[in-house]
Amino acid sequence: MEWMIWIGAAISLAGVGGLVWCIWLALSARRSGLPDAEMRDRLQRVVVLNLAALGVSAIGLMCVVVGILLG
Fold first, then answer.
1. Using an 8 Å Cβ cutoff, are 2 and 66 in contact?
2. What are the distances in angstroms from CA 3 to CA 16, 26, 63?
3. pLDDT (tens digit per residue) in 7-44
4. Widest CA span in the chain
5. CB atoms < 10 A from the CB of 11, how many?
6. What is the pLDDT of residue 7?
7. What is the reported pLDDT for 9?
8. What pTM value is reported for the model?
9. What is the DSSP letter of 45?
10. pLDDT tens digit string along 41-71?
11. DSSP code for 33
12. Are 58 and 14 in contact (CB under 8 A)?
């Protein structure tokens, strides 16, 4: 089950990359100086992406743990 560990690690890294991307999006939204309503809309989209990236990272971690337990 070594292949499952490597696939899970790659999925987790993709999720962490998504989290970094969300941080970058939030910082760029903050620096843009948008009005309150537009800032809120943009940050709500970032929250959705953030939760998706966190979910992908958790799925990857689950694959790693399952690979370790079965290997």
1. no
2. 20, 35, 10
3. 999 999 999 999 999 999 999 999 998 899 999 999 99
4. 53
5. 19
6. 97
7. 97
8. 0.86
9. H
10. 999 999 999 999 999 999 999 999 999 999 8
11. T
12. no
What ranges in the chain are assigned the alpha helix state H?
2-31, 36-70
Structure tokens at 53: 């990236």
Token pair listed for 60: 């990857």
Question: Which pLDDT score, from 0 to 100, does residue 38 have?
Answer: 93
What is the rounded CA–CA span in Å between residue 32 and residue 1?
A: 47
CA distance 57 to 70: 20
Residue position matching structure tokens 């490597």 = 6
Instruction: Kindly tell me the sign of the dihedral angle through the C-alpha atoms of 9, 15, 17, 23.
Output: negative
Residue type, 16: V
The amino acid sitting at 14 is: A
Q: b or e along 46-67 (b: 16 or more beta carbons within 10 Å of the residue's beta carbon)?
A: beeebeebeebbeebeebbeeb
